[in-house]
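hey so i finally got around to running the thing on that chain from the lab meeting. sorry it took forever, my laptop kept dying and i had to restart like 3 times. anyway pasting the input first so we r on the same page abt which one it is
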Amino acid sequence: MRDLRALPKAELHIHLEGSIRIETLRELADRSGGALQHGLRGNTWRFEGFLDFIQNYTEACALLNRPEDFRRLAEEFCADLAIAGVPYAEAVFSPANHAARLQDWFGPIEAVLDGLEAGRRDHGVVVRVCPDIVRDLGMDEAERTLEVATKFSGQGVVALNAAGSERAPVAAFASVFERARDAGLRSVPHAGEWAGPENVWQTLEHYAPDRIGHGVRSIEDPHLLEVLAARGIPLEVAPISNVATGVYASLDDHPFARLRDAGVIVTLNSDDPSMFGGWVDRVYAAARDTWTFSDDVLAELAAASVRASFADDGTKAILLERIDRWLASPA
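ok and heres what got predicted. didnt touch it at all, straight out
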């Protein structure tokens, strides 16, 4: 079997704040005198369902308080992506999770973009940013997030995301996504992780998504699968994440293979690798082990991630050629 870290992959569903190294988190907690998250046991996170995960995630964000914290987060992010074999990524960042605490909507993302540029120079990894609307926080914060995203459009920001618990009504934020598209941003919202296939239908109607984050509950609606396949809308699937937060009991229960068999474009992603215990190379290894995917299939999935990305045509061509070389190398 070929080395999966050597397989070039595009990571399309990964949260910057959920990628923070445990040792960095401990340093930040020691500096602030704050307690570490209640879900952290040694170097492993434990969650009691999705809402408990959200609480831990929010507590982790609260330890980022200085520009150098955000730059460090971004630089270490690039270093860890390089180790996992990811030369290109599109990462979610949540300005609203920091703005109230820091009284600053723009400083954190400016520091992140500085750190990502340093990471590109030092590690050869290109990362583009997708600020996300946290729908649970309401429309005012969504408007400010749109302001952040449009301000840095073309300067490292490529898309608008929408995240949160999926309890908030989808349609309420339709105008925000319309204005984001008018500003040249792409649409990559979360949908169909917890709220079921109807959440995906509403997202298709109101957000005109270029890709959908998760979307795994689409498996419950055969007609929805047909629509996703016909429209060629990729799903950013994170199987290890879905098991960690309790969407599925195990990888054996996960519908990734069935989504692929239905003709839906699927990509493999890590979501929050530090919190879920695995960067995307481990996700590919799990796919190999659980669904007995051959190296040909894994290369196909890596190529799908590149094609579904917003990288320029030249970057895509280079990465696809490197994937072909990986597959042609001795096993």
